[in-house]
Design goal:
Strand content: 15-25%
Shape: elongated
Distance between the termini: 90 Å
Radius of gyration: 29 Å
CATH superfamily of the largest domain: Rieske [2Fe-2S] iron-sulphur domain
Number of strands: 10
CATH architecture of the largest domain: 3-layer Sandwich
Order of helices and strands: HHEEEHEEEEEEE
Helix content: 10-25%
Structural class: alpha+beta
Largest sheet: 4 strands, antiparallel
Strand order of the largest sheet: 5-6-7-8
Number of domains: 2
Amino acid sequence: MATIATEAPATRRDFLLIATGALGAVGTAALIWPFVASLAPDAEVIAAGAPVDVDLEPIQLGQIVKVFWRGKLIFVRHRTPEEIKSAEDVDISTLRDPQTDAARVKPGHAPFLIVYGNCTHLGCVPLGHEGAYKGWFCPCHGSVFDTSGRIRQGPAPLNLPVPPYTFVSDTKIRIGEESRGGAPAHA
């Protein structure tokens, strides 16, 4: 004769055992979570050095957009063909801080110039599309930069520095990461 296995009906004791186990697991997770979360860097640390992604698509031709990376102002300029041509046509031997326009932009991406947004004289914020060269003009002390961010007149000793950045796609850059063959950055 075959024996038939029957399940014992669930008892109150079984329910209490499962409920106690579940409550213990939730309590243990709640106790451990703050310790695990404390291992991750906080928002200030992330903001201090984390790369910043910038979508270039909405930036209109001729427009300068300001972004911040590591607490520093960055200008992202979508240059017009005329601005690019005037920057490329400069005799670099006449510059105080000689640098070609090609050395200040990524190959194949000449329309986008990315530079730090503080004058290299005393750190003032220059105004875009101003000055004799229609690049930037620092109204505080009179430094004039061209459309490639190179110093042309005034007391600033160096060009506007190029931060480390890379093109993630044709319409997006990541400031804070340098790709191979990228534009050199002044410190």
